Every structure is written in structure tokens, then in C-alpha cells.
Amino acid sequence: MTKNTANIIYSDVTEQTSRFAKALGHPVRLAILKYLSNQSCCFTGDLVDVIPLAQSTISQHLKELKNAGLIVGEIELPKIKYCIHQENWNRAKRLFETLFNEDFSNISCC
Amino acid sequence: MTKNTANIIYSDVTEQTSRFAKALGHPVRLAILKYLSNQSCCFTGDLVDVIPLAQSTISQHLKELKNAGLIVGEIELPKIKYCIHQENWNRAKRLFETLFNEDFSNISCC
DNA sequence: TTAATAAATCGTATAATTACGATACAAAAT
DNA sequence: ATTTTGTATCGTAATTATACGATTTATTAA
After folding, report:
1. Could you identify which of B18, B62, B67, B75 might form a hypothetical disulfide with A27, taking C-beta atoms 3.0 to 4.6 angstroms apart as the criterion?
2. CA neighbor of B28 nearest in space, from B48, B2, B7
3. CATH number of the domain that residue B67 is part of
4. Residue B74 belongs to a domain
5. What percentage of chain B exceeds 90 in pLDDT?
């Protein structure tokens, strides 16, 4: 029953969905996105006041959201303005819609 | 600028959304859910044939999906039948709808 | 020029995740 | 009674994530 770690290839949809989901998989990052959505953009400085974590930790979470493509940082010195990445956000929205519309409600055995 | 690790309290919605997102944040788990959705329920045995990972690894992923509440395992000896947890799946669906309907498209600065 | 501010990055510690093989266990088949 | 089958769990290794304080960098304000 030995199975290789074989670099499994997933569909782009699966890859991308899981990448987004992973980025959304931490309450601090959801809080950041929520905060961003309530501002018409915001600065990381604000986040440090709002979220009781070290600045470096928040910066790290911002980086992950950036890497996942969910936010972008525009330099607007002396601050960096973080915004939702509209296009990718909409993409994520569609991907999750697709995921949840694989309607499971017709499953009979449960 | 010292911040405590202070056990931050998040809203139930944030907690629950991040928990679901985390569970969805791995391609294998998405593949499992997809496979489950295409059967009218399935057995872990099938999954081992379909996904090139060790049985123990798949079992571990099933456990995480179970812990997140996204699937349930019904004993139907000699196998265990895994199914989507309808109620929680719908809950997840609603939570992600809520998340993505915090409409960010009115943000002007990006 | 110097100090202050915003943010990133570095180094590090700890914890969680992912994967494996081996083992255990319960029920079914032989 | 023994073997087979499906599944979980254990032990372990490697990787990734989370968090911190300290440092660095760039720019603005004094």
C-alpha cells in the first residue's frame, strides 16, 4: 500500500481556491480584510492600533495576504496604503461560489 | 510598541469562517470534498485509489475535515462512509457569501 | 543634520501541518 | 481460528506558520 509523495498535480481551480482559502484561514487575516473594507483603504499603522499583535506579526500577515494576491500595497509615503485587490478578490468570490455550488444537497445517504 | 500575544477574542463569525477556510486551504482536502460530492457518498478506500498519498495521510486529512465539521463519517461496516455535513456545509457557504459580500468595490483609492 | 515615523526584514523560538511507514483494531471472509 | 480488509492511530521527520523583539530602511518633520 506504499504510495509516493508524488508531486500531485491539481487543476488550476483547485490550486487557486486552496491558496485563497489558506490565506483566509486565520482570524487575524480576516480581521485585517474586514478592517480594510471598512476604510476606503487604510494604513498598516492603523492595524497595529486595532489588533493587539506586534507590528512585525501584522506585517507578516499582510505579506501573506499580499502573496495570496488578496491585497496590494501602494506606496504613499511615508506610509504604505493597503487595499483589497479587487480583481483577485472577485476571482476568489467566484471560486468559492463555484466550490459551494457543487451542490451537495442531492446526496441521499446522509 | 510592545504588544502582548494577548489571546485575542474574535467574533463567532470570524472564528468560524477562518476555521472553515483553513480546512479548505489544502488542495487534497478540496479534492476529497469534490470526490465526495461526485459520489452519493464514498469510502475512504476509494480515496486511496484516487489520490496518490498514503492511506494514513488521507485519513489525517479526513480527520481535519471532520474536525472542521465539513464531513461526517458514518460507520457502515466494514467500511466508514464519509459524507458532506450538509448543515455545516451550508453554514460555510453562507459565511463565505457574507465575507465576499462585504462589498469592497466601492473603495475609491485603488 | 538629526529625530521621528511607518513599515519591512532578520533572527529566533515554538507550535502546527504534512507526510510517511508501522502498528492496532474491528468485522468479514475464509 | 486465521486471514483479509478498511480504517484509525502512533511515532517520527521535515516543513511551514505564528509570534516576538531587534534592526534596517526610507521619508518626513524638527
Report:
1. B18
2. B48
3. 1.10.10.10
4. yes
5. 57
Phi/psi at A4 (nearest 5 deg)? -75, 160
8 A C-beta contact, residue B40 and residue A85: no
Residue A86 lies in a domain: yes
What confidence tier does B1 reach under pLDDT thresholds 50, 70, 90? Answer: very low
**If you count them, how many residues does chain A have?**
110
Residue B6 has pLDDT above 70, yes or no: no
Q: Using the predicted structure, report yes or no on whether residue A51 has a pLDDT greater than 50.
A: yes
Q: The C-alpha cell of A93 is what?
A: 468570490
Q: How many C-beta atoms surround the C-beta of residue A59 within 10 A? A: 14
SS3 B97: helix
Contact criterion met (CB < 8 Å) for B37 and A102:
yes
Examine residue B16 and state whether it is found in any structural domain, yes or no: yes
Is residue B60 pLDDT above 80, yes or no?
yes
Residues A25/B14, Cβ–Cβ less than 8 Å? no
| Pairs across A and B, CB distance < 8 A | 163
From the number of C-beta atoms within 10 Å of its C-beta (0-12, 13-18, 19+), residue B39 rates as: middle
- Tell me how far apart the alpha carbons of residues A59 and A61 are, in angstroms, rounded to a whole number: 5
Which chain B residues in 17-76 sit with Cβ < 7 A of strand D? 43-46, 55-56, 59-60, 62-63, 73
More confident residue, A45 or A67: A67
